[in-house]
Specification:
The protein is an alpha+beta fold. Helix content is about 50%, strand content about 10%.
């Protein structure tokens, strides 16, 4: 069996990741098409944010990702959000109260701009490191999957019928692979191991502590603060604790 291709040089892997990213956006927009103006004013699953806030954030994240793709393409530092975190927050607040048609168009157009930013991306851009607004870093080849993560998780936050159970196994495994080491490094997670009952896969999230087991989608929902642990089991037995804040 041949060795897997290096993602930092594999343009075919980039194309597959972009297809996944576009499909996630399409699923989100299909659900948005079922909403009206009044629905946008209702609470999302995120504290203090309406559905309008969530969707405004997803659109502005796409534009921020365009800046990071530009950075990866050119090598010239291009901040994700020109106004920093304050500018990002102001843009989300300004867009949250729009009519459903405007928000739907914004989601579609910002998603198309992001896809267009990847067109003809040179191979050297895949290995170039960029910096997110949070200070986290990533390589160019990682950007599509990170955008997919943003869309998939916030689709759940919209509270319109799309749940962690809708996440694909590939998405769940990849995202746990990405996030578990971050929690382990931070040293704040009250659970040491996540054990998927759908398979024999495990992820270490702390040096010491109990094991939390259950479906992979449930484990990811818990780790990202989208679940209180309902349907998961702790060993040694006890009440499932809250995961520390992610992001």
């Amino acid at each position: 069996m041949s060795a897997p291709a290096d993602p930092a040089t594999d343009l075919s892997a980039l194309a597959a990741a972009l297809d996944e990213m576009a499909a996630a956006t399409d699923r989100l927009i299909l659900d948005v098409d079922q909403l009206g103006d009044a629905d946008l004013r209702e609470a999302s699953l995120l504290p203090d944010w309406t559905r309008g806030h969530v969707l405004s954030h997803v659109a502005r994240n796409a534009d921020g990702m365009v800046n990071l793709v530009t950075w990866a393409r050119t090598g010239e530092e291009t901040p994700m959000y020109a106004g920093g975190r304050e500018g990002r927050a102001a843009a989300i607040e300004a867009g949250a109260g729009r009519h459903i048609g405007d928000i739907r168009l914004d989601l579609n157009d910002s998603g198309e701009r992001l896809l267009g930013a990847f067109a003809g991306l040179p191979t050297e851009a895949l290995a170039r490191e960029v910096v997110f607004g949070s200070g986290a870093t990533a390589y160019g080849w990682e950007l599509p999957s990170m955008r997919t993560r943003e869309v998939e998780i916030h689709h759940v936050d919209l509270d319109c019928g799309y749940t962690p159970a809708h996440w694909s196994t590939a998405f769940v495994h990849r995202t746990l692979d990405q996030l578990a080491p971050q929690f382990r490094t931070r040293g704040e997670c009250p659970v040491a191991w996540l054990a998927e009952t759908d398979s024999d896969r495990t992820w270490q999230t702390a040096e010491d502590g109990p094991t939390l087991s259950g479906p992979g989608s449930g484990l990811l929902a818990w780790l990202t603060g989208r679940s209180d642990g309902d349907g998961l089991d702790l060993d040694p037995a006890g009440q499932v604790p809250r995961a520390p804040r992610w992001g």
